[in-house]
Write a structure and sequence with these properties.
214 residues; single chain
């Protein structure tokens, strides 16, 4: 990790309490810098795109911290569905104390000029999760898995932001249900392939029709 990356990490973490009141703004970032004994001018150097760069960096930091948090977990001993649930839960639980900052970042990420960053960050997160879960797919399953997990993660994130149950129990129950639904997809696809394989080949039908017409 470079010195600048570390400095960005430090400022972001120090700024989070201020984001609750000031939003993802230069003021919040500069207050965070001052809290760490840094000159506020360093914010302009480290985040030349301002809040946009700060949010982008924070989302990357969250991915790095997620991977660090699971480093000692025995993922190989878990079923794939349990690995994914564990990863999503680990990703969110670290930020329970900063849900308002997450909410404000989410609102910012869908605004014009920020949407592309939000999509890229979302892809990076689900890609990191699948890689951590042991997925090494390179065929069409690569994109299917990431698309499905993106839907699971984003919907769980929205539930988590509004969850006031003890220990976010409602969120984790929702997550388990969503993953259970996703696990049915391969079975449905296999059933469709089985049905389709039993249907007449349309090319053969066309050839026969042409021969009869001739």
């Amino acid at each position: 990790m470079t010195d600048k990356t570390h400095q960005r990490d430090v400022i972001i973490m120090a700024a989070l309490p201020h984001v609750v009141f000031d939003g993802w703004t230069l003021d919040a970032l500069k207050r965070g810098a001052r809290d760490e004994g840094l000159d506020e001018s360093v914010v302009d150097i480290l985040f030349p795109q301002g809040p946009r760069a700060a949010v982008r960096h924070w989302l990357g930091l969250a991915d790095r911290q997620m991977l660090a948090d699971i480093a000692k977990a025995d993922l190989d001993a878990m079923r794939i569905r349990d690995r994914i649930a564990f990863l999503v839960r680990t990703r969110l639980e670290r930020w329970t104390a900063h849900r308002e900052a997450v909410r404000r970042a989410l609102a910012l990420s869908v605004m014009p000029g920020f949407a592309e960053d939000g999509l890229r960050a979302g892809y990076s997160t689900v890609h990191a999760m699948w890689r951590a879960a042991g997925d090494r797919a390179t065929d069409y399953n690569f994109y299917t898995k990431r698309g499905l997990l993106a839907a699971v993660y984003s919907s769980t994130l929205l539930v988590w932001l509004e969850d006031h149950s003890e220990g976010c129990a409602d969120t984790w129950a929702f997550l388990d249900r969503r993953i259970a639904d996703v696990m049915k997809v391969p079975k449905v696809q296999a059933k469709i392939k089985e049905v389709v394989s039993g249907l007449p080949n349309p090319l053969r039908i066309l050839r026969r029709a042409r021969r009869r017409a001739a």
